[in-house]
Give the backbone structure.
Amino acid sequence: MTTLEDMPVTEYETAIERFIEEAAQWEGSLPVETFFHAWEEIERRRTALELKARVVHDRLVLMAPPDSPLVVHDNRIQLEDGRELVITLVPTETASG
Amino acid sequence: MSVVRRIIIPPEVTVEHHRVVTRYVQSMRELSADDWPLAIEAFNLLRYAVVIRLDDRAYTFAQIYDELVDGRYATPYIKALLELDDVSQESVRLWAVAARQLYQDLTEVGLHDPVHHPNSRLLMAYCLYWWHSFCKGYAFEVEIFRDLEQSGLRFEPHDLLDPAARRSPYDLLISGFRGDVKTSTYFLQKASRQRVSSDFFITRVWLPGQRARILVVFLQDLMWDAIDGETLVARLAELDAVLPHPTRIAYHGGKLVVIEYAHWKDKMRQYQTNHGEVDDNA
């Protein structure tokens, strides 16, 4: 199967234009069995909440996915009870201490 | 002119993910029950794909979407939606106009360069996927909120024009019950990121056996017990045959009651009348 990245450019552009037309007409209702089957599979696959982290100028910067239930700001994670979880980088200890 | 030096796709994105993203773009309505979880997983993973620009600045697909799509188009789209008389029909045009505009925007700022950086096509697919989920999801939400208003039910919707409120864990509060209003595909997207915790959610499904789209409400047991009602017990595979009768089903990790939307509204009206929330002559 040819993927999006492998298609000739004109074929890709046509596919995008067709997508916009088709998607406009479809409001996102799945057949009921497809919906439940997919939901079950999603529940099975779902894992722990995920955050990404990056070190920027010696500071830890956490990033939550766009619709994550987690609220993060820089190195702080807002907990449901109103407290904050703060993660701080510490220098690596060397073998010589 | 392209500003892309390199695009890094997370190593977790497999060949199967690439293929299902392609199938989604080519024929989204034909995706199978096995395709949907894979497609949703692919678009979730692509959040972390990174575009490294010629000036060495790096942005994830999610950051690009937030800034160039959600930041520009989300609130104007919702405002336009609220002005429409017939949301389901007229919102079609709004989606298409903004989708073409975002294609143009990403190309003009040089982040979408399908000739020299074929991986930037995944950025385009990613943005269109999320924009479609957003547009159809909120069009559906506005439709339902209007209908609930017309039905005389008391409820508190979240503020659609407030970006922070749009990200609230539930969409409306009715008689103390927390509810979600989602298209079935948007619902699956949400379920992929967090466990369903609302007391009820309203969605629309297609019943192939009855060749009909119907609005249904899924309720947690607690809410169903509160608003009362008898149910049939059915397996998922039998739903098509038993709906619209209220039906209790087992799903992964729990039980839910499925009820036709109009029937649920009747139950809620009765509940609110019994509890003095609405005038029974309303």
